[in-house]
Specification:
5 helices, elongated, 10 strands, alpha+beta, single chain, six-stranded antiparallel beta sheet
């Protein structure tokens, strides 16, 4: 989708926003446009992007990292991410669940081994308020909620709701 970031035209590839703060913005365009968009995003008090018929306010996280890859014919892909993204968030391709990766991330977050076939049930325990994503799936688990999720998983195992494979 074609958008402008502070007047600079780029193509929005993917977006994840949490409490109006961009955690991941992926854009494609001419080299100068992508680098200028990154600079504008870093310095901006916030940007507004049209998404599914409504405007989404996206504030720049602090700090933000930019990663750039040159594609064919001078086109550049820019990925603007919150610096500690993997500490609290898991980002996955839409409609292509990687249950093993999700299980590893959940295990690291709560300090318990999580089996891949448990992921759909454990995912229901994660907070998702104020989380908006476009063309990706994003899961969030802050440290202060990890103990609560851990206790719920332990209870589900004790009650037989989460079982070991036979």
């Amino acid at each position: 989708m074609k958008v402008t970031i502070n007047g600079i035209p780029v193509v929005l590839d993917r977006l994840a926003v949490h409490h109006a703060t961009g955690i991941l913005v992926s854009v494609v365009g001419a080299r100068e446009a992508v680098y200028a968009a990154y600079g504008a995003y870093q310095r901006a008090q916030g940007i507004t992007l049209p998404l599914d018929g409504r405007d989404i306010r996206v504030n720049s996280p602090s700090p933000v990292k930019g990663r750039f890859t040159t594609l064919a014919r001078g086109v550049v892909h820019g990925l603007f991410v919150r610096e500690n993204l993997s500490e609290y968030y898991l980002v996955l391709e839409p409609n292509n669940p990687d249950l093993a990766a999700e299980a590893r991330w959940l295990s690291n977050q709560i300090g318990l081994p999580i089996l891949p076939h448990w992921v759909p049930e454990v995912r229901k325990l994660l907070p998702n308020q104020a989380l908006t994503s476009w063309r990706m799936e994003v899961y969030y688990l802050p440290r202060f909620r990890a103990e609560e999720v851990k206790k719920a998983v332990q209870s589900a195992v004790r009650k037989g709701h989460l079982t070991l494979p036979q």
